[in-house]
Amino acid sequence: MLEQAFLETLMDKAWPAVEREDTGEWVLRASEGVTQRANSVWPRNLSGAADGVPELAGSLRSASDWYRRRRLPLIFQVFDDPRSAALNAVLDGQRFTKQSETRIMVRGLEGLPVPAGGRNVELSDDPSAEWLSVWWSVDGRGGAAELAVARRILLGCPALYALVRDDDGVPAAVGRLALVDGWGGIYGMATSATHRRRGYGSQVLAALLENGARRGLEGFWLLVTSANYGAQSLYAQAGFTNYGSYLYRQAPIRRALSGC
Description:
Blueprint: H1 4-14, E1 19-22, E2 27-30, E3 41-42, H2 53-69, E4 75-79, H3 85-93, E5 97-107, E6 121-124, H4 129-139, H5 144-154, E7 159-165, E8 171-180, E9 183-191, H6 200-214, E10 220-225, H7 229-237, E11 241-250
Parallel strand pairs: 9-10
Antiparallel strand pairs: 1-2, 2-3, 4-11, 5-10, 5-11, 6-7, 7-8, 8-9
């Protein structure tokens, strides 16, 4: 059985922040504002939180200062777990917002989906310019500078990149399999706007799972927003089951007083 703490570690390694500081209690991550995951606090150790609300408040102030120096908002990645109760209570008291609820889904190696459609899925150890273009057109926020940071995040861990083309040779869909400690994380699944609902995403997913199995991985996990029912259905059909969830909690914006 995949343990929650181990899965959190896999997720942190699969999407590594450009800048990272482990306090022993929390992991502070920053990547110039590119993606919430790489610019949020992972409260890695909450074992003593239930007995230490004052200590949590002190750690919160330190984290706030750390992000303020980088001109970033203070955001927590909070897992739906009893360990998070005390932290959530403190964040509630300081009016942290709740954003981007995300489901965690997992599966083993049995009954992997068979690639269909007869198209060749191209695989690479690095994200090509075409791969990045498709992914960024769907999930990107920003321009060339932000994309450069995103590429650094992608290359921060060994991974397999898949791309499938339409009959005219135009890139249609992409996906990434992060290879971490004997497990595979599905990230970067994206289908261009003009190629949706034609099975391209399923082909990419099947190819990544098949190649992950060939590499002797123990199993797979993926992340999907709770509001993305279409993607959840795709992953359920591919044998993934719900494991848990998390959301992001962001500090309220404090506006400076004007001179008026």
